Amino acid sequence: MISVTFTVNGGVVTGYIISGHSGYSEQGSDIVCAAISSAALMAANTVTEIQQLDAEITVNDGFLNLNLSQQDAKAASVTLEGLRLHLTALSQEYPKFIKVKNSEV
After folding, report:
1. Which of 10, 15, 38, 73 yields a CA-CA distance of 20 to 30 A from 103?
2. Is residue 70 helix, strand or coil?
3. How far apart are CA 58 and CA 72, in angstroms?
4. How high is the pLDDT of residue 50?
């Protein structure tokens, strides 16, 4: 199962941690993993490359962690809220393979 945790500070999403493998299908044909990975990387690239915001990012096999300062998180709020909405919808469609939660800091 893939676990997604959005960190929230004062109502603003300041980052996300995505870990695990969905197990929906074999590696290379797992549509759940592909959808989540693609969305998470697009959000990270939008924040860092398009918006030019300073984000702490760690990426490993089955793991992505992105953190922003409160100020940068406000600037990236539309992107991060869009990601949260998208991954929440995926978790409702594939509840055995992805879990999304919010962690207030």
Report:
1. 38
2. helix
3. 17
4. 97
